[in-house]
Amino acid sequence: MASDAAQPSDSESIYHVSAFDRAMMQRCLHLARQALGRTAPNPLVGCVIVKNGRIVGEGFHPGAGYPHAEVRALQAAQERAKGATLYVNLEPCNHYGRTPPCTEAAIAAQVAKVVVGVQDPDPRVSGSGIAKLRSAGIEVVVGVETEDCWQLNEAFWYRTVRGVPLGILKYAMSADGKIATTTGHSAWVTGETARHWVHQLRSSCDAVVVGGNTVRQDNPYLTSHNENLPNPLRVVMSRTLNLPLSAHLWEVERAPTLVLTEPNANPQMQQQLQEMGVEVVEQTPLTPQRVMGYLYERGAMSVLWECGGTLAAQAIAQGAVHKVIAFVAAKLVGGQAAPSPVGDLGILKMTEALPLQNVRWRSLGADYLLEGYLSRTGTPTMETTSRVDRA
User: How far is CA 319 from CA 62, 75, 164, 359, in A?
Assistant: First the structure.
């Protein structure tokens, strides 16, 4: 489990976090969110540099291979960074990757103080960036707006700590647990506000997965529906490739599409898809668990499962789902044959039901949104405390 702050020694004092500190860290988070859906496998990071109570430089990390937030903020501040306070939502890196260490840039700029939201879980960084800054005589505070900082980068935490992308099962259902009518009609279960929220959710994820049935029955786009927001990699799992040639998902000018299938499945369809610009990859066996591993290798941090009940149940059973986002509409559908969001899990007693932890509810227009984590997947969570580390 990731720790939110390095523990202070007996000689270190407890720092009082001011309203100004919190406001500056929230500004870091605001800046970081500008790169939602674009940074994988890197985290979302924003940085603000303050001198004499005024912001003199700020920046965010736009994506892998580009300068980190701290470097961009220091470049904006220039000589004003000397003696200033640097705020950043994630511990500055202390290793050479695609870019030089941010700790060296902060030391070279002669900042006087660094305020860190949370410690980086990456073993190449974790604690060493903080130690490097302190060894250079820079005051370092760790643990400001910790929960918000962790929440922003929960997918990065999961990928780093667990070695797989964060799997999110999303579905919309009626108050009686139906995702469609007995005829399969499902447009629309929820209202416009909830659908807009889903579009934003897609833009923050690296991949969205559906099965062949969803393609055949719903013909989805699986995009953000906003030209200013990024689109996820659209992934279709199909063992037989019994798929319509007219599907919206083959319109790759909207967003890239990857079809995962088993070896030698429908060679003619494979060729037709590839001619339309769709990537086709064979896997054996084709399972949610294997798909998650493959997407991890491609750099994904978050994978959104927008599939039907059968595939959803398989993904849950194989540990490919760690978080559940359920939209509940205040309406009744009825029908014994009407589909539900999750298929058979082999649960025969209510005492065997899979509990959700850290559950949150909110209203979205006329609908409600539930977010929770499957406890048996061991989702890492931040250990928030009232202590703030200062040295």
Answer: 31, 43, 10, 19
Tell me the per-residue pLDDT of 333-342, one tens digit each, with 9 for 90 and over.
Answer: 999 999 999 9
Residue 352 DSSP code: G
Number of Cβ within a 10 Å radius of residue 92: 29
DSSP state, residue 36: T
Q: For residue 330, give the amino acid letter.
A: A
SS3 at position 132: helix
Q: Give the model confidence (pLDDT) of 180-236 as tens digits.
A: 999 888 888 999 999 999 999 999 999 999 999 999 999 999 999 998 999 999 999
Which of the four pLDDT bands, split at 50, 70 and 90, describes residue 124?
confident
**Alpha-carbon span 240 to 31, nearest angstrom:** 44
End-to-end CA distance of the chain: 24
Tokens of 2: 């990731």
Active site residue 251: no
For residue 14, give the DSSP letter.
Answer: B
Which of 58, 70, 91, 145 is flagged as catalytic?
Answer: 70
Q: Are 312 and 171 in contact (CB under 8 A)?
A: yes
Query: What's the rounded Cα separation, in Å, for the pair 205 and 358?
Result: 21
Report CA dihedral (371, 377, 380, 384) to the nearest 10 degrees.
60
Distance CA 225, CA 202 (A): 9
Pairing of strands 46-51, 279-282: unpaired
Residue type, position 216, single letter:
R
Q: Is the distance from CB of 185 to CB of 72 less than 8 angstroms? A: no
The answer to whether 263 and 282 have CB atoms below 8 angstroms apart is: yes
Query: What CA–CA distance (Å, rounded) separates 148 from 46?
Result: 13
Sign of the CA dihedral with 300 first, then 265, 309, and 328 last: positive
Pairing, β 85-90 against β 257-261: unpaired
- Within 65-127, residue ranges assigned H as helices are 69-77, 102-109
Q: Any bridge partners for residue 305, and if so which?
A: 169, 209
pTM of the predicted model as reported, rounded to 2 decimal places:
0.89
